[in-house]
Fold this protein.
Amino acid sequence: MSAGKSIEATFCFVDIAGYTSLTDTHGEFAAADLVDEFCELIRTSIRPLGQFQSLTGDCAFLVFPDPLVAKDALSVLYASIADRRDFPIVRAGLHHGSALLRDNRHFGSTVNLAARVAARATGGQILCTKHVAETLVRAGAVGIEVKHQGLVALRNLPQPFDLYEIVLSSFSREYAIDPVCKMQVDTRRAAGNLHFNEKTFWFCSLACVERFAKQPSAYV
């Protein structure tokens, strides 16, 4: 077995928001088809500099040489997803640092932290640690706004971390989000809508309408 070597990179985890609800509502075959399409979108978006390291369920582990390349790849990915009105929104987390590379696999606390950051993101968000945010700001990265989120507690880590949101301006969200399965919905072709707490919610399917109607507070 190779001892491996230490490398420095930007590590990213990106997954489908609401994947469990999506699977429960639309079935495992539809969910699997969406994951296949998701993977193809990722492969296209991260070429040529990013690496699609692995996929666990609906969560993709990506590796980039630096935060700027990661930002560019995620901009392409999020824009591609925004073009698909019947596709779920995604969320991502980024951290930059050193890790052990052994047999084409990455190990270490840097990788673990990136995963924890991604887990704190909500649908449509890209969260990152301070180093990533400062690198993007110093470089004058275009097409984004970096917003400080403050100190955030992360699962299984003893101290909170300073997190930032990378807000992409390369595309506009002109769709509604199904509150049940997190699918993007073209309101002109929606299966239905319901009003709750003075807001209108749009749905991709009658199954989602029924789930929301039974327990709306569970989804908002």
In short: The chain has a mean pLDDT of 92. The chain has six helices and twelve strands. The first helix runs from residue 19 to 26. The chain has two domains: 5-173, 177-218.
